[in-house]
Amino acid sequence: MAYVYAPFNLRLSEREGEKEFAFLAYRPDSTEEIIGGLLHFLLTWGPTPDQRRELESLLWMRTDSSRYVAGSLLLENDPAAPDLDIGPPDHQLARLLVRSLNSVASPPVNPGGKMAASFSFSAEDARTLAEALGDAKAWKDVYVRIRLRTMGKGYLPLPPTEFTLTTMFSQCLESL
Question: Mean pLDDT across the stretch 134-163?
Fold first, then answer.
């Protein structure tokens, strides 16, 4: 009677309606050049409340109202790709993010779980980032990706064993 879904919808996390994304450029005072910067954001995946209701409605339309969405497949981090993947490798802004990455939490294995990524920038990179953040087109091809694996074996039909969740960084910026 219970149905589960595969992971989907990688996006910026929200708290109390606010996106969890911050960029701070710092300077000695407001009249001087940027001398560095920090970027911090949280990612999450899974259905939004509206998507959850839509999943349930679709299930009931195709079966009956005694069926329900129990949640996500049981997942674990993929040991072959345990971190955040940022690319493409030949994109200037993706390379800037990769070289500035300080720390990253493990990808969340439950829907609604959060993954933090923190970056610190040199003066030149902070200036580049400050200019580029206002231009979603500059980020057009840059992606952020996580990988997860199915943990359990008791599903019918058998789901794929590996999942890749990708979001375009430009879409994250447009959602701010």
Answer: 90
